[in-house]
Fold this protein.
Amino acid sequence: MKITKEQVEHVASLAKLSLSEEEIERLRTQMGGMIAFADEINTLNVASVRPTTHAIAQKNVFREDGCAPSYDRAVMLENAPMQDGECVVVPRVVE
């Protein structure tokens, strides 16, 4: 498929790009090459290739969720510069 100058200018306007004539010609050639490559890939026989979502086998890496004891609130608040016994108190920044 041959890419026209108008098609490159249209894509450039969608991307809010300002291109020189040299850039338009270079992109026209490069975009034509990309489409030719995609057409070449479309000719391959992949009927015997199993569909995959990743190039390598993936497994679930998540652990089971479970309850565990947490830190004591009073101990954690000992390092806070200002606290009210339950939470860290911070200065108000929005009026």
Observations:
- The domain at 5-42 is CATH 1.10.20.60 (Histone, subunit A).
- The chain has a mean pLDDT of 90.
